[in-house]
Write a structure and sequence with these properties.
The chain is mainly alpha-helical. The protein has 9 helices and 2 strands. It folds into 2 domains: 2-210; 212-241, no CATH class. It has a two-stranded antiparallel sheet with strand order 1-2.
Length: 241
């Protein structure tokens, strides 16, 4: 019950922050660094969803909504989404607090959205994982697949920037810093992510409050012998986490 409340509250905060940000973007009132420039709505929304912050909060929203509905949630794809959400949101919190905070003066609704995205969500998500799990969920295959999204984001950011001369963050701005510096900056973020992932995997096998693992390959759907309906049958204990 406590887990459901925790994750449900976190999902609510992220959802409200997202709605505020979408409204600010739609009305072209979102704060910008530098002079305000009128842009088509499509451009504003493409840029909004190009931010690592927004993508990591969307993944987190999906993950904690699922946990609010089923605190023992598991599955191969689910593990990847959960790990990407946790890694992405923690990196968002660290990078914002150490590099990006204070570059734009925020007030009112924009401040609330920023607080939800960058301050509340990262540490509430991490604390929720530490307290409630579920564990174990981080294995080698999950770590490998979880690396796909950050790699795609980096490739997309550089390609989109080369085509439009717009970059979501100053440290990723090639026109401002040049490719060597940007690649070094992004490499540092990747290294940070790898270190966090290693710590999470270590804790995943040692912290309590885990839940039984049913390997996805060991869950079959078979017809019920009498009613003909489908039911889930668990086969033994496979290689799981």
């Amino acid at each position: 019950m406590k887990s459901r409340i925790w994750h449900g509250t976190l999902a609510g905060v992220v959802l409200v922050s997202l709605i505020i940000q979408l409204t600010l973007t739609a009305t072209d009132t979102a704060p910008h660094a530098g002079p305000q420039i009128a842009e088509p709505a499509v451009t504003r929304f493409v840029r909004l969803f190009s931010y690592f912050t927004i993508q990591s909060n969307l993944l987190l929203l999906a993950a904690v909504t699922g946990l609010a509905l089923n605190p023992r949630r598991d599955g191969r794809l689910w593990r990847v989404i959960r790990l990407d959400a946790l890694l992405g949101i923690v990196i968002t919190g660290i990078v914002y607090a150490t590099i990006l905070a204070g570059q734009v003066e925020l007030h009112g609704a924009a401040w609330l959205s920023n607080f939800g995205f960058h301050y509340f969500a990262p540490w509430a998500a991490l604390l929720g994982w530490l307290i409630f799990g579920p564990r174990p969920r981080i294995d080698g295959r999950t770590l490998a697949w979880a690396a796909v999204w950050p790699a795609l984001w980096i490739g997309y950011t550089l390609a989109h920037g080369a085509a439009t001369d717009w970059y979501p963050y100053p440290f990723s701005d090639v026109s401002l810093n040049g490719y060597p510096a940007v690649l070094l900056n992004l490499g540092a973020v990747v290294l940070l992510a790898a270190l966090i992932a290693a710590v999470l995997r270590l804790l995943d096998t040692r912290l309590p409050f885990g839940s039984p693992v049913v390997p996805e390959a060991d869950v079959l759907e078979v017809p019920h012998p009498r009613a003909g309906a489908e039911t889930v049958v668990e086969r033994g204990s496979g290689a799981g986490s």
